[in-house]
Amino acid sequence: MAKVITDNKKIEEILNRSIAEILPSKQAFREALLSGKQLKVYIGADATGPALHLGHATNYMVLERLRQLGHKVVILIGDFTARIGDPTDKLAVRQQLTREDVKRNVKTWLKQLQPIVDLKDKDNPVEIVYNHSWLSKLNFENIINLASNFTVQQMLERDMFEKRMVEGRPIYLHEFFYPLMQGYDSVELDVDAEMCGTDQKFNALVGRSLMKKLKNKEKFVIITTLLENPVTGEKMMSKSLGTGVFLNESAENMYGKLMAQPDENLPQLFIDCTYVYTEEIEKIKKDLKSNAVNPRDIKMRLAYEITKIYHGEIKAQAAQESFVNTFQKKEIPNELEVYEVNKVGSINIIDLLSESGLVNSKSEARRLIDEKAIKVDGEVISDTNKEIKITEKGFVLQRGKKQFKKIIKV
Description:
- Helix content is about 45%, strand content about 15%.
- The protein has 3 domains: about 10-225, Rossmann fold, CATH 3.40.50.620; about 250-330, Tyrosyl-Transfer RNA Synthetase (Orthogonal Bundle); about 340-410, RNA-binding S4 domain (Structural Genomics Hypothetical 15.5 Kd Protein In mrcA-pckA Intergenic Region, Chain A), CATH 3.10.290.10.
- The chain has helices at about 10-15, 25-35, 55-70, 100-115, 130-135, 140-145, 150-155, 160-165, 175-190, 200-215, 250-260, 265-275, 280-290, 295-310, 315-330, 350-355, 360-370; strands at about 20-25, 40-45, 70-75, 125-130, 195, 220-225, 340, 345-350, 375, 380, 385-390, 395-400, 405-410.
C-alpha cells in the first residue's frame, strides 16, 4: 500500500481548487484526508465518444492529486451503463452503445489521460474497472431489491424528466435504471468517495444512499466545478458552439482555441486546467481586475501552460511562436470565432465563405474575391475556383480589414 501523505498545504490545494461541493461536508472530507487512512476514490465514465475536452480533464486532475497523496484511485468504465445512456440533461432518449463502441473509445481516452493521470505508476497504480463485470450478473431479484430503495417520485425529480413530461416526450422505463446502476457501482467497489461533475450529482447521491442502506458506510461525494462563462453562463467546452478544447487536438489548434477564449474565462481556466499554484492565480485575478496587465499576455500564458501539459514544452513553445507569427505580426485579433469544418481534403473558397457565415450569399463571395477582399492566412485569394486545404493546424479566413474566422478541421 502506498504511503499516505497528510501535508496540510497539499490537502488545502485539493480542497480549494476545482471542487464545487463535497457531501456530507468539506470539513468531514478534510478530516478524512488528514487522518492518514488510505481512501478509495473512484470516478466513472461511459466513454460515449472518442474525445475528451478540458471540462472532462478537470475531474481527472483532481483524481491525480489525490493519487499523489497516496490514496487509491479507480477509473470505472461504464461499458454496461453505456448501453442505456445517461439521461442527464437530455430531452430525448440517448442512443445506446455497444461494448465494442465503448472499448474503441476507451482506448483513445486512456491515451489522452496519460499526461494528467500517471497510468504507468507501479507504486500506487490506477485501477481501471468495467461495470459490465458485475452489472451483467445481476438477476431480476437483485434488480427488484435495489429498485425497492427508491420511489418513482424520486426519479421524476430530475428536471430533464419533468421537461419531457411537459412536452409529451417519452420516458423509457430503462432510463430509471441508470442512476440505480451507477449507484450500485459504489457498493460493488466499496469506495470511500466518488468524484463527479455537477451534472452527475443525482446519480452520485443514489450511490451514497445505497452505501448507507446496504453497507452502513458513509460515502463522500466530491462534485467538481463546471467550466462556465461567468458572464453568459454558457459552457466553455461546447462542441456545438465551437468552443470545445479537446485533449487530442494538435498543439497549434489547442493553443489557438485557448487564445480565442473570452477574457472573463481566464481565472477559472487557470484554476481548473493548469498546475499554476493558487497563490499565483489570485495575483493574476487581481492584476486583471485592476488592469495592471494586458489580458492578451495572461491569455498567452494560459494557452502555453495548458498546451504544455498535453503536448510538452517544445511543442507548446512552437505553437506559441506560430500564433505570434500568424496573428500578432499580421495584426489579426487574438480572439477569433472558430468555425469547424467536418470535411476531408479541401473545400472551395466560395463554399467556405458561405458556410462559415462570412458572407450572406455565394454571389457576394464572388464579388468580394473579385475585389481582392478575401484572404487566407494573410494571402489574397483572387480565384473563385480556389480549393482551400483543410488541415488540423487550421487557418484564418479574412473578409476585409475587420472580419475574421479561425477555420479548423474536426
